[in-house]
Structure formats: C-alpha cells, structure tokens
Design a protein that fits this description.
By secondary structure, this protein is of the alpha+beta class. About 35% of the residues lie in helices and about 30% in strands. A hairpin with a 6-residue loop joins strand 2 and strand 3.
Length: about 120
Amino acid sequence: MSTRTFRVTVRGVFDGLTAEQRAELLARAPEHDVLRAAFTPEGHLTYDIAARPAFTFRFLDSGEAEEDILDATERAEEAARAWLDGRDYGYKNLRSQAEDLSLAPLGKRQRRAAARSHA
C-alpha cells in the first residue's frame, strides 16, 4: 500500500482580540503573509489582520488509506486550536477542508510526463 499525502486547510476568524493581541498579530504579519503560504506538517498560518480578521492554517499530513484523511483533518483542527488557545486568541467559525493529493487530477505537464514514462 502506498502512502497518501493530504493537504488540510483550517480556516476561521479571530474574535474578541484585545488591542495588545491585535498589535502582536500586526507586528508578526510579515511572517504570516499569504505570499509565503505553504503546506507544512506543523501547519503554516496566514492572515492579513489589517484587512480582515480571517486566518488560514495549512497542514501537510499523510496516511495509508483514503479514510486516514479524517484523522489528518482532526489532527489539523486540534493543532490550529492549540496554537490559538496557547496564545489566548479568540476565534470562531473554525472549518476545515482536506484534499487527498493521490486523487487530485493531473495537470497538463504531469499528464505529458506520465505518458512519456509509460511509452
């Protein structure tokens, strides 16, 4: 059985932040800019608190079976909550979306490469 790679996105909205917490997020915003977004095992956070209070965590996980995506999603949500709770950041509307990359359609270049390798 081959290993499946999962990308999990956890989105939410900061809620009830103090002035100090907002200032802290603004100060660290360059580290969390969407242009630096990446799916990582530990999770990568992006936000633009100056524009709106929404945030996104991106996680990379893996499993052996298609059903493992459910566990990966749960781990991602728990990690996002732990990060937010650990900083006492209020949040709401937490939701997640997961993708099994083994089931993702191939791009045009990938299809060409796959066709050449099977020829």
